[in-house]
Amino acid sequence: MQWIEILATVAGLFCVYFSIKQNILTWVFGFVQVTLYTFVFYKAGLYSDLGLHVFYMFIQFYGFYAWNKDAGTDLALKPSSIGVWLYFWIPIAVLGSLGLGYLMRLYTGASMPFLDAFTTTASIIAQFMMIKKKIENWIFWIVVNAYAIIIYAVKGLIFSSGLYFVFLIMAILGLIQWNKAYLANRKQL
Question: To 10 degrees, the CA torsion angle through 157, 155, 149, 124?
Answer without folding.
Answer: 100
